[in-house]
Amino acid sequence: MRRALSVATLIAVVAACAPTPQPNLAPSDASTAAAASRVTEGTLVRIRIKNNDQKLAMLADGLDLFAIKGDKADAVVTAKQLTKLKADGYSVEVLTAPSRSRGGLPAGYRNFSQIVTLMRTWQTQYPDLVKILDVGDTWEKTTGKSPNNDILALSITSPKNPGNKPAMLFMGGVHARELAPVELTLRLAQKLIEGYGKDPAITQQLDTREVVIIPVVNVDGRMQVEGGQQMWRKNTHPFTGGTGVDLNRNFDSHWAYQGVPAPAGWSDSRWESFKQQVMDPESDAFSGPGAGSEPETQALSKLFAQKRFTLSVDLHGYGEMMIWPVGHSLVPTPHEGLFKKLWQKTAPRYRGGTSMQLLYPTSGTTKDYAYEKLKSPGFTIEVGTDADGFRPDFSRLDKIWAELGPGLGYLVSIGDNPNAVQ
User: Fold this and answer.
1) What angle do CA 311, 316, 317 make, to 5 degrees?
2) What pTM was computed for the model?
């Protein structure tokens, strides 16, 4: 029997704020080319922050901050943003300059074609255990530009106990530039596939549940990275003023902060400015023209509805954090205690909390969609240290996997009924 969290009340829906400004959505060849150029010019920087007011000011100005820890935060900025930061007196360290942001994957990483080949090899070698699911199409495939860009998943479960097994989801590659999550999902798949019939625990798990793994959600964006656009984050849907939608802000879960009041410490004007930024196609956190507007998001939403996942994990990079719902409020959910238990058993060395507690407000994410729409635990796990960045040396993956792999295995072990965790 499939189990999900029993949530009597999720989050009280507050009075809606002013209508969210809509972007200019008409694409043109010229604007698409210019937007692609701007992405190429992205510079990865580390900014020293003196106080919370400075952080809020940068967020309101449209900077997508990440790896926020103590008095520093990282960001990918345009030349204009970098000039403004320096003019405003911020201490800024350039980590990856534009001239170094061109080139494909580092040595050791598999490209998308090789990943698909590996998935098909597993399906051929283990036909009773592994099946490839065609989750849906990317934006480029729907337009005919890239007919082979399918979002593919591995369904790993044995033929024993046929029927409606509890299912859980692990995914990577939502943000294209984050390389380690893709490889870690493949390592998890390999551990489960090769362990079946040899490891009694894994055998029991795959006899009684289904594990779905999507190594690369954002295939179009991944192809941009493989082609040399190292800082590409979004999909490749073009708009006037910019290219791409942040798929992890596009889900129908308080999309674009609809109905979310200004958080504590935010002025109404600063909050409105922050919300406007996610409606700017040039922003790395552009939420799209509407909730669930993108083919990739629609495909995942359909998969969520079909499988009714009891647990979902979205791997990202970087900063060593385990983040749980909800991202747009400091008010704890009824399952805050459960989330903390799962964090302590999965990644106790990582920082744990909500997006608001660890970073800044988020909405329209995979984890919030899982929790608010399906009443099941959803997590974002940020893997890798600040030094690893988006593109850790491939040799670093052994250590990252050694630290996190057992925790991912633990989530598989309790994924049939996460609510029973003690």
Assistant:
1) 150
2) 0.91
